[in-house]
Amino acid sequence: MNEPASGPAFRNPALPVAERVDDLLGRLTLEEKIGLLHQYQAPVARLGLRPFRTGTEALHGLAWHGPATVFPQAIGLASTWNPELVRRVGAATGEEVMAFHHKDPQAVGRNVWAPVVNPLRDPRWGRNEEGYSEDPWLTGVMATAYAQGLRGDHEVLRTAPTLKHFLGYNNETDRFVTSSNLPPRVLHEYELKAFRPAIEAGAAVALMPSYNLVNGRPAHLSPLIATARSWTDDDLLVVSDAHAPGNLVDPQGYHDDLPQAYAHAIKAGLDSFTQDDDRPAATLGHIRTALDRGLLTEEDIDRAVRHVLSIRVRLGEFDPATPYDHITHEVVNCPEHRRLAREAARQSITLLKNDGILPLRSPKTLAVIGPLADALFEDWYSGTLPYRVTARTALSGRCPTLYCEGVDRIALRTADGYLVAAPGESGGPLRVGPERSGFDLFDWGGGAHALRAVANGRHVSVGDDGVLVNDKPGVSGWEVRETFRLEERPGGVALRHIATGGYVTVADGVARITADPEAAAVLTLELIDSGAARAAEAAARADVAIVVVGDHPLVNGRETEDRADLWLPRRQGELVRAVHAANPATVLVICSGYPFAITWADAHLPAILWSAHGGQEYGNALADVLFGDADPGGRITQTWYRSAAELPDLLDYDIIANDATYLYYRGEPLYPFGHGLSYTGFAYSGLTLSATELTPRDTLTIAVTVRNTGPRVGEEVVQFYTHQRRSRVKQPLRRLCGFRKVRLAPGESRTVSVDVPIAELAFWDVTRGRFVVEEAPHRVMVGRSSRDIRLTAAFTVKGERIPPRDLGRPLDAAAHDEYDGVVLCDAAVDAGDAVRATCPGAWIAFRDADFGPPGAGPARCLLTVASAEGGTLTLRLGDPLAGRVLGTATVPPTASRHDYVQVGMELAETAGVHDLYVVFENEGVLVRTLEFLR
């Protein structure tokens, strides 16, 4: 190939990206192109292409590569309700990624796997801390802000942000094999709505499918990947989650072998395989086999490689210079980033309750109490803390403090003596001896406990040889080996090691793990010192008690583990009660990645604060808020329920049918979406609408005046909600459509406004498979939270009237209006949904089906069906149990659930508009379409 004097086109930054990619793609051999389809992309020395790696974790700061600035967890960032601040945090993180990349390009790539945009549908989800909000619109706003900061404002990308996890991913329980049931409205109005904004805005340039299945099909094979690509004119890189491609064969069993699975994944849109760690040979071999079998073509490979190369070109990899070449390691944890970390932590702190005890008024003595009072924890996706400012550290700098960790100190007595911990920093095996050795017992909820040896301050862990050793600085790692369950036994308890499932036994005088429950040592827990009693003693001696409790991010709610309930850990709850009994001036501070059902605390304590794990500057930020240097600026972004009993099943994703999230929840929450108090008061007045009658092409401007009525400077988050008051379908009770965060001096007023495109009030019309703005009256609600509404106004939208269902077109069974006893599943391997009955008597309903005038109604119905066992389907009008029978059809056994046949039924004469029910008389019957013939 003759090169122009200026060099190859792919190295010319003056050319369009597509032209540069075309040039580079044309220079690569097939083998070289295959080498680019793995997380660890092979170099192409003859063209000067260096190795390239996807997958740098940067959820709230750079992770896994050593000390770097640690910002509040993602849910904490969202709780600031400050997109500009979130953008700045993303920009700081992007700069630190670049600094580490310049230091070690092979270890730290510029494709970052952040942000997480799964809506926080259920607070029991183990990865709740990683998301932004239960509201998809707010999630999109925050994700766009963070991703924009990561990518930078230049045409050349600073980093390449990746949205994860696509799609319907909110459970860790059996996450590789569970299928998220997403009816069309939930899919389009809730799930996709969270992902679209960052891609559409060009802030995120890559996408990661999730581990789970969606409507019976693995997310890595979803045709919705193509939908996501339609949101942007740029190439969108799609990377797999770690080891997810291999799951397609085992445990998902969706394909018989890996070449077949990988071919399907590439055709569905996957460009980069995160499989087999840094050893791509096996993965690439399966792709070659797929080519050899004719399952893939070189055109399929080219399509995937084009997406890969487009991102590398946009990152400036082939340019003579980039705008980021000047970034050095000096930017990491620099003073500016430390100040930003403190500001982000401060603005995220949320005041849930306050009877006037806060801000603190020059107390002479503070009691600082609790297992999180002098601790900062790293979560799985946080960076390594460069330093720790704990609550105790910061508060002791403000006034004299009394500190008590508030955990019980116990001894573990066996039949032959006590378990004794070794002294010294490295500890040693726990042995049986006559002396009583102390252990501090931490309760992290969900039955998980950790033991810290008094002998050396190290946590007890279980080594690979099964021996218990007191050698760990704390709970840590992907496989947490420092937690145990206490199982009641006659005469004592057995310690069950959570990671291995084994039990603590004693053999040859050494504590070790056995797989035999019957061989478990029965231990007596002797209380040496009560943490609650010591805490109460300290609280009684102080003017005010600050109790800091919460979760450990690696225990009882984390990746791979959902929570079973919403309660505080039992011993932490007892600690709070004991402190309050000793000193009614008790302030509860909760530090956690998810909500708790703190009903007792809300009823009894004078003040409650919450924040996510706040990073390195958490203590300073907390002290700023407690002492009133700053107004608490946080507002919660998901509902705090009174009990898990108010939640649907964790695996039930239909928020509409279940009245779930603040959008549909009809109960009385402990704290509603958007809740958060200030140290001052605010008055709302002068709500105005730019118009009271609008069309779908119009934009509504809502304005309101807010005045600080108190004696202090305060921050208010003015929240705007809408509600459609009449509709063919069930509408959200309230839906966030905008907000403004304002800082007001005492007596100061400000008029704030938001613009709401009426098109954004659309919902998914299942009768026609598209979004529609319906003709209907609406209400605007403005206030301090989704339940604290101060002003309302009405307007009308002159939109569409949804006509009755047209039976002249085939009905998609998945596009029903209501259902009972069915799930959605994959109609075919590559695309399409079907409805499968999970029990006899299941049904789906099609509201307002138009059978036409008398004498002209349909005479037959053809149903596209499948069933391993066969069965019967009945069509009824008006009611699934007692409604008039329109017709019945027998479903024959079919070869598989993907082998459909058509069965017909004669229909009774019918005219007019009716609610049509398809009743499944047997479980396991699938219906894909219904076609009515006149």
Automatic annotation (TrEMBL):
Entry keyword Ligase: no
The keyword Signal is annotated on this UniProt entry: yes
UniProt entry keywords in alphabetical sequence: Glycosidase, Hydrolase, Signal
Name the record gives this protein: Exo-alpha-(1->6)-L-arabinopyranosidase
Function: Catalyzes the hydrolysis of a non-reducing terminal alpha-L-arabinopyranosidic linkage in ginsenoside Rb2 (alpha-L-arabinopyranosyl-(1->6)-alpha-D-glucopyranosyl) to release alpha-D-glucopyranosyl (Rd). It is not able to hydrolyze alpha-L-arabinofuranosyl-(1->6)-alpha-D-glucopyranosyl (Rc).
Entries under Pfam families matching the protein: CBM_6, Fn3-like, Glyco_hydro_3, Glyco_hydro_3_C
UniProt family annotation: Belongs to the glycosyl hydrolase 3 family.
Any one GO MF annotation of this record: carbohydrate binding
Domain annotation CBM6: ranges: 809-933
A GO biological-process term: arabinan catabolic process
Organism taxonomic ancestry: Bacteria, Bacillati, Actinomycetota, Actinomycetes, Streptosporangiales
Organism the protein comes from: Thermobispora bispora (strain ATCC 19993 / DSM 43833 / CBS 139.67 / JCM 10125 / KCTC 9307 / NBRC 14880 / R51)
InterPro entries the record matches: Actin-crosslinking, BXL, CBM6, Cellulose-bd_IV, Fn3-like, Galactose-bd-like_sf, GH, Glyco_hydro_3_C
PANTHER family xrefs: BETA-D-XYLOSIDASE 5-RELATED (PTHR42721:SF3), SUGAR HYDROLASE-RELATED (PTHR42721)
